[in-house]
Amino acid sequence: MPKTFHFTEDSYEQTIISLFKDMGYEYHYSPELDADTSRELTDSTIPGALRKAMLAINGADKVAAVDEAIRKIREQFSQPLVSANITLTDWLQNGLDVTFKTAQGSLRSDHIKIIDTDNINNNSFVVANQWTVTNGKSTKRADIVVFINGLPISVVELKSPSREVTNSEEAHQQLQNYMRIVPQLFTACQMLVISDMADTRVGTITAPLDRYMEWKTTDGSYESTAFADFETFFNGIFEKHRVIDIIANFTLTMGGDKKIRILAGYHQYFAVKKAVVRAQDAVAGDGKIGVFWHTQGSGKSLSMVFFAHLIQKYLESPTIVVITDRNDLDDQLFGQFTRCAKFLRQQAVQAESRQNLKELLEGREANGIIFTTMQKFSDGDEPLCDRNNVIVMVDEAHRGQYGLTETIDENGKVSIGAARMVRRAL
Fold first, then answer.
1. For 247, what's the count of Cα atoms within 13 Å in the CB-facing half-sphere?
2. What is the rounded distance in angstroms from the CA atom of residue 426 to the CA atom of residue 287?
3. Contact criterion met (CB below 8 Å) for 234 and 154
């Protein structure tokens, strides 16, 4: 009889580790690393790695500032998990301000980065398996943990591929238990992964199971999604440049009293990246960016938030005008942007009239996110501004915000397309 090979959880774990090694990650078996570094098991980070990386990123002459930044970072690991994760995510994305005492005894301030988004080689990338963390009398051992600059940014929970009945709910519940018992393992965590080889998904520390998503492409091509597997998933998310980009630009926090952490889906990530490239081309060319299609329920408003965030890094202080065709949609979308104000680093405003829209545009030379409705563009003919750093995002564009040419009906009435009115005004 022919022999049949079955992946066990251990052999699958080794397969995943091989994928990371192929991507250039340094690999460590946790018990060996613990012995080499004398790591206290209450510490979920790699000893010394954060300081070494932050000195490389910020400069070897900034020892005092880096040490103060590390002190503030370490404080977060003893704070309530969600609030600490939100704070540390903000610092990962934007760096943190520190005040420290110099050798001469005077106080100085500085801004320190945790990760380097410009020079990837300044960051350290490590994957470790069987990572043990203790809290009081409790001990938990994670299957695989991914570290950037010594911080555990992803925890991977594996289930045996050879089981006849796989249960992603079991893997998700396991991670929930870990978060409850050893929360310090998740303080810096941006991505929680559950996988049994056949089903691999990613979520955040606040995501319910139904919000865990697949990642079906490594390059954004639609054709590759039909052949997506666990290799596509891990290569698609954890390629070094991409995982840094995702952490820096494609994860955010929303909510009022109850905060939720959100991670972009693969379709949002690649589409927004392409839209940013087209926007750069459009500013230098004919001004036409293109159409960004979404299916219902695929996170259109969040894609717009991610785009508004990222375009600010690629164009010089752009002003973003968001156009809807109904007041209720304007309020809904404005509310979404308001809830993401910290991620966007600015508060959006709503134009009350065409004149108010003109005042909002003329009153600034740069930056700003302004919401308005299509009706305000049909209330007059004069230009609203003559700047070339205004980016227009039109919601529900297929419903009528098109038409660059004039048309004449059988009665000789001339109609101007909505797109023409917008381009003429802006």
1. 32
2. 11
3. no
8 Å CB contact between 425 and 416: no
Is the pTM of the predicted complex or chain greater than 0.70? yes
SS3 of the chain: helix, strand, coil, percent, to 5: 45, 20, 35
Tokens of 268: 């949002």
Report pLDDT for 4: 40
CB atoms within 10 A of CB 335: 13
Tens digit of each residue's pLDDT (9 = 90 or more) over 230-276: 999 999 999 999 999 999 999 999 988 899 999 999 999 999 999 99
Count the Cβ atoms, other than its own, within 10 Å of residue 51: 16
Residues in the chain: 426
Give just the sign of the alpha carbon dihedral 136, 139, 143, 149.
Answer: positive
**Two tokens, residue 99:** 């005040």
CA 278 – CA 274 distance, rounded (Å)? 6
Instruction: Provide the angle, in degrees to the nearest 10, between the axes of the packed helices 300-314 and 327-339.
Output: 60
- Angstrom CA distances, 356 to 55, 319, 329, 353, 359, stand at 48, 15, 19, 5, 5
146 Cβ contact list (under 8 Å, min separation 6):
20, 25, 125, 126, 127, 152, 153, 154, 155, 156, 191, 238, 243
